[in-house]
């Protein structure tokens, strides 16, 4: 944490900004308390960038709306049932919430909200002491409710790098079970440690997460994965049993050993792959937002192994775990209410993550490289990163061989792409031209002819329209002019030998 003088200067800079100054003066003029609260205060004290401005007030939602309507025309309800009104003024988006105390009933997925009257009452019901901090405006008074307990408050916990609840963990996690996932997220984002009593409560009340909607769990999981290093938070979720409730395929990896347990288990391998994928993502796309699709695929790429593990001839195999894992990921992500595009992309990456291995033993033909690009489609760049990250061997010679092999395949893809527009591989003839040449109308024969030309394009590269016409007519004649059977498809790429090392 930065020196206190610098921290207060950062808070003062926020308070003096046009938007915040206008709000503070307007609420004070109406006799209402008004405070910057939670994350912005925490981040300013830590020296982190403040990106969202969250405020709390003694004013009720209707009163907040009236005040904001006088300041700006851009006002909207974020969640009136939760007492939150948002506005856009002086190029800042702000959210203002009435003092509140929300609590889940035993079997409800939605919290019940009641409004409070004091800032202290609002703060003590928040998730963790490091977020139970408020800067009262315009007077610039810092409120830290935990400091009066004798156990230290939010500022002390920021200095010590610890996460704990303002009151009893039992009460906090009963009020909102999602806070247990938030503890894991903050542990990852801030590099803080969850104190033992709070972690014990996460174990005790893990089942309580069952009343929280899949959408809220998904959103919190995405925030965790977006951290610079999500692994400490993921470990906490697994160790407390929380992951078992919404991502059991991950916890199942813990007991799945490669190579008779002589090497790290699949769980540890998966965490390493995630970290390596994030490092590659940053190096290849500096400054871009976290790639959640890539990170989910890296974490879950081996979840098909427990179901496919077999002991054969003194070794362990996981045949087809790529295909099984893709199906499991698709099912789990749908249950967590991920959008269809994310589900499709993650599943495709998992399904293809083994495709490259074996290239270092026997170089692919240009045809095989084209198929690799065709099958990866829009996920090719992510597949490059995932495949490289999937190498966690401690055998330096093997790691270097795989790295050189992937350097080579990326080079060949680039060369073929430049020569052939590989990213948009398609036959020289489209469906309309096929029908004209063969004298047929729409129907399955057109599809068979198109697939023949596509396989030809993949095998031989661009051959030109004239040659494509000749080859199509030869194929059509061999088919009996639309007779019995379709052309035999090209053989699929050889599935790589299952590896005990990722």
UniProtKB/TrEMBL annotation:
SUPFAM superfamilies: Nucleotidyltransferase, Poly A polymerase C-terminal region-like. Its cofactor is Mg(2+). Residues 266-405 form the HD domain. One of its GO terms (biological process) is tRNA processing. One of its GO terms (molecular function) is nucleotide binding. It comes from the Bacteria. The keyword Metal-binding applies. Residues 479-502 are annotated as: Disordered. Pfam families: HD, PolyA_pol, PolyA_pol_RNAbd. Its EC number is 2.7.7.72. CDD domains: HDc, NT_ClassII-CCAase. Keywords: Magnesium, Metal-binding, Nucleotide-binding, Nucleotidyltransferase, Transferase, tRNA processing. The keyword Transmembrane helix does not apply. This is CCA tRNA nucleotidyltransferase. It comes from Leucobacter chromiisoli.
């Amino acid at each position: 944490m930065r020196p206190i003088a610098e921290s207060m200067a950062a808070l003062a800079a926020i308070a003096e900004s046009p938007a915040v100054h206008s709000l503070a003066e307007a609420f004070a003029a109406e006799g209402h308390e008004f405070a910057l609260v939670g994350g912005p205060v925490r981040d300013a004290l830590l020296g982190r960038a403040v990106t969202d401005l969250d405020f709390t007030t003694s004013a009720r939602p209707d009163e907040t709306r009236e005040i904001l309507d006088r300041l700006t025309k851009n006002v909207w309800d974020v969640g009136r049932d939760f007492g939150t009104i948002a506005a856009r003024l002086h190029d800042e988006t702000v959210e203002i919430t009435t003092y509140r105390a929300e609590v889940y009933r035993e079997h409800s997925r939605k919290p019940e909200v009641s409004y409070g009257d004091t800032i202290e009452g609002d703060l003590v019901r928040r998730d963790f002491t490091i977020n139970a901090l408020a800067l009262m405006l315009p007077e610039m008074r810092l409120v830290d409710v935990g400091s009066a307990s004798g156990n230290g408050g939010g500022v002390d916990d920021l200095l010590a790098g610890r996460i704990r609840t303002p009151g009893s963990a039992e009460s906090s996690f009963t009020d909102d079970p999602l806070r247990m996932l938030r503890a894991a997220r903050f542990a990852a984002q801030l590099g803080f440690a969850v104190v033992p009593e709070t972690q014990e409560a996460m174990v005790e009340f893990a089942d309580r997460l069952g009343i929280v909607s899949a959408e809220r769990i998904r959103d919190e999981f995405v925030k965790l994965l977006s951290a610079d290093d999500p692994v400490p938070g993921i470990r906490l979720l697994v160790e407390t049993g929380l992951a078992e409730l919404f991502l059991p395929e991950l916890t199942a990896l813990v007991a799945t050993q490669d190579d008779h347990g002589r090497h790290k288990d699949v769980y540890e391998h998966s965490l390493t792959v995630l970290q390596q994928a994030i490092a590659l993502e940053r190096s290849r796309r500096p400054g871009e937002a976290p790639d959640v699709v890539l990170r989910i695929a890296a974490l879950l790429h081996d979840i098909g192994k427990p179901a496919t593990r077999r002991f054969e001839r003194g070794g362990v195999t996981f045949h087809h775990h790529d295909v099984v894992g893709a199906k499991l990921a698709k099912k789990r992500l749908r249950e967590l209410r991920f959008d269809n595009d994310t589900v499709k992309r993650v599943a495709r990456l998992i399904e293809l993550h083994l495709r490259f291995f074996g290239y270092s033993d026997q170089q692919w033909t240009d045809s095989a490289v084209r198929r690799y690009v065709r099958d990866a489609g829009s996920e090719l760049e992510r597949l490059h990163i995932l495949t490289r990250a999937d190498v966690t061997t401690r055998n330096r010679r093997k790691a270097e061989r795989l790295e050189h092999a992937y350097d080579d395949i990326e080079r060949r893809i680039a060369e073929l792409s430049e020569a052939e527009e590989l990213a948009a591989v398609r036959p020289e003839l489209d469906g309309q031209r096929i029908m004209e040449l063969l004298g047929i109308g729409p129907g399955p024969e057109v599809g068979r002819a198109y697939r023949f030309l596509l396989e030809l394009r993949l095998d031989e590269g661009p051959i030109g329209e004239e040659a494509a016409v000749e080859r199509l007519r030869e194929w059509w004649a061999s088919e009996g002019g639309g007779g019995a059977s379709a052309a035999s498809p090209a053989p699929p790429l050889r599935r790589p030998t299952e590896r005990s090392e990722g």
